[in-house]
Amino acid sequence: MGADAKQDSPTHDVVGALNCVRERIEALSSTQNGRRVDLVAVSKTKPPELLQAAYDAGQRHFGENYVQELVQKAPLLPPDVKWHFVGSLQSNKAKILVSVPNLFVVESVDRKKTATALHKAVAKTDRNEKLKVMVQVNTSGEESKSGCQPGQTAELAEFVVKECEHLELVGLMTIGAFDTSDEPEAFKILNKERDAVATRLNRSIKELQLSMGMSGDFEAAIRMGSDSVRVGSTIFGAREYGNKVIQG
């Protein structure tokens, strides 16, 4: 086989894997009273060519973990891509993040300082709409993972709603510890935190989306009520850091 064939193969792998994930999501959605579940293709460290292949196959929601990477990729993809920022956000990076015109949602608001930085940054742009945000909850208690602690979620959510007029709270997100059980504990916790937020804000739980589930557990997440799942390595392949292969 020539060099061209080798270059083409990753594209075909992405499209095939993407369609397989979609089929699995649709099969589960049909058992959830037709509830819509959005697929966010998490493309961190992956080249724009693979994202374009997914886009050409109909994918529109993409997720990135690093501000600089999102800022660099966004102009290289079509403007109707809906970018989800799903990584830990330093307050001093808020301004450059919101400069991306098609930034769809920031899923990783984990403290008041982050919310305030985003609020102030959006205020200085010409955005016509509020920036959608989610409160990230650390459901595993791991220091390596970002997120507010369970029990503090409602307070942070209320702060976003009452003190950050340029932000729109749309739900909660978690990464959680990997759990192969049918009902992972992380997802139970996030559902309980949503109940607490709904009570505090006097909202219906239907108004608050859940973003939970990744490559290894997105099907369990859907069964437990997730409105969107973030799938990376299953679509784009494992990420390599030094001698480690990272799945997610």
UniProtKB/TrEMBL annotation:
Q: Which residues carry this modification: N6-(pyridoxal phosphate)lysine?
A: 44
Tell me the GO molecular function terms: pyridoxal phosphate binding
Task: State whether keyword Transcription applies.
Answer: no
In this protein, which residues make up the domain named Alanine racemase N-terminal? 19-239
The record's InterPro entries line, in alphabetical order, gives: Ala_racemase_N, PLP-binding_barrel, PyrdxlP_homeostasis
**Keyword DNA repair (UniProt):** no
The role this protein plays is: Pyridoxal 5'-phosphate (PLP)-binding protein, which may be involved in intracellular homeostatic regulation of pyridoxal 5'-phosphate (PLP), the active form of vitamin B6.
Q: What is this protein called?
A: Pyridoxal phosphate homeostasis protein
